[in-house]
Design a protein that fits this description.
alpha/beta, Rossmann fold, 7-stranded mixed sheet, 38% helix, globular
Length: 200
């Protein structure tokens, strides 16, 4: 059976979803790895409002069992004031049972984000997503500067994880460097999962 890497994200304008698909492509470039794409639903300020159980488009909504079943996790969110978006935080806050049971301990993880501007809080958003994953005992995977695209990019990309600069109105397409770094991040997590599975 292939090792499944959960690529879990929240997206509003579509840029974070596009990054998720590129990362999934990178995951599947590693033999024996398969990406499981999932999203989280939006949250409403009126708590009685419920989302339909199936999204209108894109992959299914994540369930907590996706975390237990995955061999690795790659988490993505647009930036909200230098932090992850509330829907993703809401989902993570619901993982107390998984934390208590150690369901994610020792599994590789990585993070990605999309921002409107170059200095819109990319790195703090990535770190805000890494913190709960470290509390879960996961192994954080970044992007090293041995990757040429990280040294040459004039758009997104950080050593903490993948990033993309979408523009104030979402006008910026994902750049070639961002595309390459997305696939790199997927490959790195999948490769570490493979190495851990092969170790005695």
């Amino acid at each position: 059976m292939p090792a499944e890497i959960l690529v879990l994200y929240y997206s509003r304008g579509g840029h974070t979803a596009q990054l998720a698909r590129l990362i999934a492509r990178g995951v599947e470039e590693i033999a024996g790895a398969r990406a499981r794409l999932r999203q989280v639903p939006p949250v409403a300020p009126v708590t009685q409002t419920a989302q339909a159980p199936v999204p209108e488009e894109g992959p299914p909504y994540a369930e907590l069992r996706d975390l237990a079943e995955c061999a690795g996790l790659i988490l993505g969110s647009p930036t909200r004031y230098g932090n992850m978006a509330a829907p993703l935080k809401h989902f993570i806050d619901s993982t107390i049972a998984e934390w208590a049971s150690g369901a994610l301990v020792g599994k590789p993880c990585a993070v990605f984000t999309s921002t409107a501007t170059m200095h819109g809080g990319q790195e703090t958003t990535l770190i805000s997503m890494l913190l709960p994953l470290l509390h879960h005992g996961m192994i954080a995977v970044g992007i090293p500067y041995t990757e040429p695209a990280l040294n040459h990019t004039l758009t997104g990309g950080t050593p903490y994880g993948l990033s993309h600069v979408a523009g104030l109105n979402g006008e910026n397409a994902v750049s070639e460097h961002e595309r390459e770094l997305a696939r790199v991040l997927g490959r790195r997590v999948a490769d570490l999962v493979r190495r851990l599975a092969a170790s005695p």
